[in-house]
Amino acid sequence: MDGSVRLDEVVMRFGDFTAIEKTSLAIGSGEFFSFLGPSGCGKTTLLNIVSGFITPSEGQVYIGDEPMAGVPVNRRPTAMIFQNLALFPLMTVFENIEFGLEVRGVDKRKRREVSERLLALVALEDSGPKMVTELSGGQKQRVAIARALAVEPRVLLLDEPLSALDLKLRQHMRTELKAIQRKTDITFIYITHDQGEALNMSDRVAVMSAGRIQQVADPMTLYREPATGFVASFVGENNRLQTRVIDREGERVRLDGGALGELAGRVGSEARLVNGEAAMLFVRPENLRPVAADAAGPRLEAEIEAVHFEGAWVMLEARLIASGEKLRVQLGHEVSRGQAGAVAVGQRMHFGFEPADAVVLSDDGSPMVDEETGEVVADSQAQAGGMHV
Amino acid sequence: MFRQLQARFGGPLAMAIVTLLGIWLIVMVTLPQLQMIEYSLKPNLLPAQVGGPDDRLTLANYATLFNNDIHRTIFFKTIWSSVLVTLLTLAVSYPLAWYLAKVATPRQAALCILLLIIPFWINEILRTYSWFIILAFRGPLNEVLMMLGLIDRPIRFLSGNGGVMVGMVYAYILFMVFPVYNAIESLDDNQVRAARDLGAGTVRTHRRIVIPHAKPGIATGCIMTFMLAAGSYAVPALLGSPGSRWFTQIIYNWFFEGGNWNQGAAYAFLLLVLCIGFMSLVMKIFKVGLGDIGR
Amino acid sequence: MSSQRFLAFGLRFYVVIFFAYLFLPLIIMAAATFNDSRFPTVTPWDGTTLRWFGELAADRGMWQALGNSLIVATGVLVVAVPIGIATALFLNTVSSRAKPFLYALILSPLLTPGVIIGISTLIFWRQFGVSGGIFLTVLGQATFIAAYVMLMVTARLQRFDRTMERAALDLGASQWQMFRRILLPYLKPALYSAAVIAFLQSFENYNTTLFVVGYDTTLTVYIASKVRTGLTPAVNALGLILILVTVLFAVIYELKRRREAARTVKGV
Questions:
Q1: Which residue does chain C place closest to B3, by CA atoms?
Q2: Can you tell me the mean pLDDT for A206-224?
Q3: Cβ separation C163–A82 shorter than 8 A
Q4: pLDDT tens for residues A77-109?
Q5: How far is CA A174 from CA A140, A287, C93, in A?
Q6: Mean pLDDT value of segment C24-35
Q7: Sign of the C-alpha dihedral, residues A23, A24, A29, A33?
Q8: Among A23-37, B254-268, C88-102, C252-266, where is mean pLDDT lowest?
Q9: What is the ipTM of this complex?
Q10: Measured over all CA atoms, what is the biggest interatomic distance in chain B, rounded to whole angstroms?
Q11: Residues 269 to 288 of B: which have CB under 8 A from any C CB?
């Protein structure tokens, strides 16, 4: 059962608006693959193209090497789990799960066997005769999964299915989804704007922005080796500093941080750096540590504006003295062991980082992303121009 | 349009939908109306004369109305009386609609609505007939009035327009109550409270807040009531007398007593134009569109 | 403050009067059934009797008319309900610049006086040699009753979550299966209501029927003709029976509708 999915130069236009720019991508059979991006980035459109609800303007979708052009929704070997689940409210749990088999003309006894097996898989053994309206949110979720699995899809498409659940249940369902995927060995294509979900469950993640795939990688690589400024700021938290390249020595780059003085970092995987040109330096909050005012290496002086105690760590919101930009610093053991001394609002501190932990990317003009909401806030070019004045 | 239907329902079902809709709109709604207009523009001919020199389009059938004093009087009386019925119905319905929507508790409102629906479901003829009994020369109304000493001889209620109009208000009142009730019901209670709070009296609150909000409902109710009143045959036939004929009765006579369908068609078309005219007028005054009426 | 209270009291008093006005005529008509008087009235009361029910039962014309009414109402149901559903589905699916015009055309039978619908139907079918009778009565009535059905189906359809449709297709259903298994069951309560309303509208219609009924007669036409010629309290007996049946229908319908509404609020 080949559940591989291949997009071959797929383009989607709605009138003048290009929702999906030319995209090619291969998803392996049995892979848990996520599309991660802010709302409006085109990820749902891409899902609808795979499921067959939308026909792409250009290009072709292959599932298990079969071209899908002209194959309608109801003939594709895919099943979708909808954001609002779309369970049929007038049917029982059994009827919901068996619907796909019923329309295929599978006889009643066979159907019941399948639905009972699937109810066991999602741990809802006794709920078959219930109406779906009697179920809790988490139970509805499981029924939706069972209903989609009943048609034995080669590819399961999940459109932000956890977004309606509360936080605790959401985290629990992640584990469960991953377990179900492993048990069934079906290709999962998962759409989300929640990076926690994507990083947590996926084998590989495609980060999308403005109709384009920014990077496809496994979660660890995505976090450590962001290929673009968008990925660096969208996945995990990152401090972004606008710099110019001084020179390059192997992996290590020396940078001119303007008012911040000389900085250094490691060359990002796909960065093309030219001496004297603009570059972005990304330092994650957890890679910053307090240092002495005369310490060697890159050093940033900032005034603490807020201290958020989170238990295992402390998040500092600070402002760089030299440039006025924001800086977020995460302190762990240093604080809990009292090594960093008392950290208080209004205090000035120096923070250093290992150049190997800071990624340098060429300034590709990728949009800035608001860390809280994941929304695109501004074009980096405009932002950079403002900062260099 | 067919493409959208086909995308959603598939070819055969889309085909069935379009066929049913087409038969209805073309064969049942549009063509009969057009045919009626064509009829109204032709003279009443013997079968032998059809296709002959006399078979031509003419406005003669419309001229009849303006040359016939009695018919013209009845036409204008029908308009005037229907307007009066509409206004009367609105006046009677508005306080009730207000009570149901904003004063009554939910339980009271639910009970009242059930009580309103019951007579609404009862045959128009029976509802009218009940007034025939009440208003009869030796009927209960005259008896009561005489007992109270208000009159010393029974009144012939059933020989004037009064009986017809009372019957019409009774027959069509719910077509007014429900749209007005629905419209007032959707008004936010706080708006009324705010108006009161700002010192507006009852009259001003209604004039400035409630009635403007209820406009689509009032317009719908007025259009329906006028149309039903002007187009009523049952009520004037039961409660009227030869002296208080309604325009619909003249139309009926052209068809089934005068045997002149062409003339009848012309009168029917005039009635239709009258209703469309009234509807446009109301929609213009209340500044509402057709979309507000379907609700 | 006292003027406010006076107004509130006045409004309540008005509501009581209003319902008296609504029901008293029907009660008087019903009461007249039992008056042993040749003419239907309650004054004077000439003694209580049940004989008018007997006279009614012996009236062959009445039974004939009742039969016709039932045939016509069934016919209207068969014609108007599918048209109403189709129109509602059409309006719910299609978006086009011609839609406002079509919508006006679709609503027009509701805003046209019933007599005109009857007249135009009568005239139109004359050229095909069809004259007034049960067939034309069905067509004439269905012309505007279909619009009522459309309104009721549309009201429910607007609350339908179309992801259900997508889900059904995605699970392999054909469009027909989706319609049969998802959309139609969802519409069922509205279809029952529409059927009941259509049946009653047909049963009690007078203005349209009068023009297209020809030499046949429906119950409503029969009652009207009885009132004008040969009026006896047997008409009241018939009225009373019809009222009781209607009230029964109305109460059942209303209770069902409310239970349905309560369920819709609770569920999904």
A1: C94
A2: 88
A3: yes
A4: 898 998 888 888 888 899 999 998 888 888 899
A5: 15, 28, 37
A6: 83
A7: negative
A8: C252-266
A9: 0.85
A10: 77
A11: 271-272, 275-276, 279
Establish how many alpha carbons lie within 13 A of residue C241's alpha carbon, considering only the half-sphere containing its beta carbon: 15
- Give the chain A residue whose CA is nearest to the CA of C165: A86
B255/C112 touch (CB, cutoff 8 Å), yes or no: no
Cβ contact C35:C49 at 8 Å: yes
Q: Which chains touch B (3 or more CB pairs under 8 A)?
A: C
Smallest Cβ–Cβ distance between C26 and the set B103, B130, B143 belongs to B130
| Predicted TM-score (pTM) of this structure | 0.82
Residue C85's pLDDT is what?
94
Whether the Cβ atoms of residue A85 and residue A141 lie closer than 8 Å to each other:
yes
Chain C residues interacting with chain A (CB cutoff of 8 angstroms): 161, 163-164, 166-174, 177, 181-182, 185-186, 266-268
pLDDT above 70 coverage of chain C, percent: 96
At residue C47, the pLDDT reads 76
Most C-contacting residue of B29, B141, B146 (CB-CB within 10 A), to test interface: B29
Reading the block at residue A157, the tokens are 């498409």
**Residue A35: both structure tokens together:** 């599309």
Is residue A265 scored above 80 in pLDDT?
A: yes
Tell if the CB–CB gap between B123 and C204 is shorter than 8 Å: yes
Q: CA-to-CA distance for B151 and B132, rounded, in angstroms?
A: 20
Looking at the partner chain, which of C111, C142, C249 has a beta carbon nearest the beta carbon of B227?
Answer: C111
Q: What domains are there in chain A, each with its CATH number? A: 5-223 (3.40.50.300), 225-388 (2.40.50.100)
Pairing relationship of beta strands A278-283 and A239-249 according to DSSP bridges: antiparallel
First to last CA, chain A: 59
Structure tokens at A233: 């700021």
What are the structural domains of chain C? 33-266 (1.10.3720.10)
Handedness of CA A274, A280, A284, A288 (dihedral sign): positive
d(CA B34, CA C176): 37
Is the pLDDT at B149 greater than 60? The verdict is yes
Distances in whole angstroms, Cα of residue A385 to Cα of each of A361, A365, B243: 17, 11, 91
d(CA C49, CA C56): 13
Q: How many CB atoms lie within 10 A of CB A375?
A: 14
The domain defined by B68-293 folds into: MetI-like fold (1.10.3720)
Q: What is the pLDDT of residue C145?
A: 93
